[in-house]
Amino acid sequence: MASGIQNIGKVPELNRRILLTLLLLAVYRVGVFVPTPGIDAQALSSFFAQAKGTLLDFVVMFTGGALERFSVFALGIMPYISASIIIQLLTVVVPHLEKLSKEGESGRKQIVQYTRYSTVVLSLIQGLGISIGLESMKGPAGESVVPMPGWDFRIVTIITLTAGTAFIMWLGEQITERGIGNGISLIIFAGIVAQFPSAIGNTFSLVKTGEMNFLFVILLVVLMVSVVAFIIFVELGQRRIQIQYPKRMVGRKVYGGQSTHLPLKVNSAGVIPPIFASSLIIFPATAINFIDIPWLKGIADSLNPTGILYNAMYAGLIIFFTYFYTAIQFNPNDVADNLKKHGGFVPGIRPGPNTAEYIDRILTRLTLWGAIYLAAVCVLPSFMIGWWNVPFYFGGTSLLIVVGVALDTAQQIESHVLARSYEGLLTSGRLKGRRD
């Protein structure tokens, strides 16, 4: 991978893609600082200062600080992710969507269109709930967060937040199509990384005030490096299934007979399960925190990031989405059919249904370990945050997303470099036996 990345400068198209990606991410970060009209920024800042250590910290992390400033991107990309979850779940039970999912590129485009519409609807609902909740919020001195409440403020807020989410969605799609890497994941990545400097600054402030021991900070750094190394080790881990192709006689020559392998990743779902699980918890929790209803506040308080209930729900959703997303991405029956069509087989296993069952059995076991790994990395550091007052950005979820997205993007860059290298060999090289 390192050798491929070193050759980035030799591929003009890849340079353009990387530059476009960085430019669009910069546009996103600028939008984080554009405020929504009608908000008293000082009163809102005081509210978030009082909400430290709650689920709102988690929401602020995923929005890259946009919610804390209540910018035009305050809803972040979460409505789009929630809409994607809903559409993918409906694909399993709604015949029309299931049919579209099997129609190739045209069906995929139609499903993407449904996801966009659903994103707008969810943004409108969430924007309405937040705008109503903001009107009842007060600062520490009794000042109102919304100086001029009413439907004028609500309509402006709904339109602004919905437009912001739609624009982020567009940015993500442009990065995926014309840039490098997965656009939505990179936007979340950029938001998390942008908060790291302030988290480091807060940590040093805790050391200066004596709330955190310097030796503990060193231990924290060692632990973070160990977690990152463990994430890289598991993310690159594979279970290789040997595939054999039979020899074929053509005239007097024997062709084929080569042996290859089918790589199955330990974590084939990547960082999608934690993102999906976080979205399902964050989506209602964001609105609840802005609504002044006692029993709803009780629900929000029980979903404390360091609490047992929250972490149990979070781990359960991660395990569910790991299996769900793996099932969507990898179909053992299709793999077995393709092997059979091309004459490939697993040694000792009959082609067809037996091969599909064998691959499915291995994949199920790998997915179990992958799900446990994801849940452990995302949940266990939460207790460390609660017990030792570690900044939330050093939690397992943020590290997992940052490392996972970085690895995925680096692999895509390497693929572009290798593809360019092969094209160069085909265009500049001379095939053996070719005449001028």
Structure description:
With 436 residues, this protein is mostly helical. It has a two-stranded antiparallel sheet. Strands 2-3 form a two-stranded antiparallel sheet. Residues 425-436 have low confidence and may be disordered. Strand 2 (247-250) and strand 3 (253-256) form a beta hairpin. It has 17 helices and four strands. It has helices spanning 2-6, 12-31, 41-50, 55-62, 66-69, 78-93, 95-101, 105-135, 151-178, 183-208, 214-235, 272-289, 294-302, 308-329, 332-341, 353-388, 396-428, and strands at residues 238-244, 247-250, 253-256, 259-265. It is globular and about 90 Å long. The chain has one domain (2-428): Orthogonal Bundle (Preprotein translocase SecY subunit).
Q: Given the structure, what is the number of helices?
A: 17
Which sequence of strands runs across the widest sheet?
1-4
What is the level-2 CATH architecture name? Orthogonal Bundle
The low-confidence runs, each spanning 5 or more residues with pLDDT under 50, are 425-436
- Highest-level CATH class: Mainly Alpha
**Which word captures the global form?**
globular
Say which CATH homologous superfamily is assigned: SecY subunit domain
Rg, rounded, reads 25 Å
CATH topology descriptor: Preprotein translocase SecY subunit
Q: Mean of the pLDDT scores?
A: 79
Got a strand count? 4
SS-based class: mainly alpha
H/E series: HHHHHHHHHHHEEEEHHHHHH
